Amino acid sequence: MKLVFLDSDTLPHPIKQPEWITEWVNLPATPQTTDAVVDALTDAQICITNKIRITPAILAKCPNLKYICVAATGYDCIDLQACREHGVTVSNVPGYSKQSVAESVIASIFALRRNLMSYARIGPNTWSDSPHFCVHDRPIQDVASATLGIIGQGAIGSEVARLASALGMQVLFAEHRGKHDVRDGYTRFETLIASADIISLHCPLTPATQGLIGQAEVAHMKPGALLINTARGPLVNEDAVLDGLQTGHLGGAALDVLVTEPPSGQEPLLTLNHPNLIITPHIAWAAHDGQARLAQGIGTNLEAFHTGKPINVVN
After folding, report:
1. Which one of 267, 282, 303, 306 is the catalytic residue?
2. How confident is the model at residue 226 (pLDDT cuts 50, 70, 90)?
3. Is 220 a catalytic residue?
């Protein structure tokens, strides 16, 4: 049994090889081309991938492939229909990062609401020249009583809601965009966009959610509202966020993901000098606990497939 991990360096620590896998190949980073991925998967029955896309063209040239384990919760890098057609089972690792991501979201809320980034950059002369004991040149807002709109009520979104509620925030969950029949416990999408002080994204990337937050959504957000995205970059139109920040309509944004990863470095958001913009390199999931749970989840998925009873199957 041969296993190939296509982008093993995306995990800080190696995964323990089960005894029943006779050949385990760790590839630090496989180029995202059909030929490169096909060459890497030659004779492999099992593939682990974090972000390397598996397309119909790749599957057609890898007849031995039987199982794909996505080293993540999101599985938008896999063509699930093509996998069904080729008899390839696909599993993900749901919920492994809920604590890590949820804490990252709460940290971002504190940083943005209290303008910590700006105050942390106060130069020594600014404070020294102040006629008072403090320098109070930007608003500081409390976190308690703020309205947090969450889009996506999975494991991560629910954990964010739990932590936010404990802080005294009002939590709203969004109904699907365009749906007028609102389920119990949800708020109409358009109503949430217009009423939340902070919007945090925790939904999967699908054709229906791509560009979920665009120019219209940003325009309908409350003046000074905050946007947090720790899910997938393409959920957000980056030009809309840029415009919202530059005009001051958006009070701030915390983006752990971008449309292109890794970015070129020339993206306007990356070069924007804005006091309340936080961009981190897709690491909200990567706390020690999250890494350990991910490795454990991959191992559990592999063992389940080996016994003929795969779990966490997404196709």
Report:
1. 282
2. very high
3. no
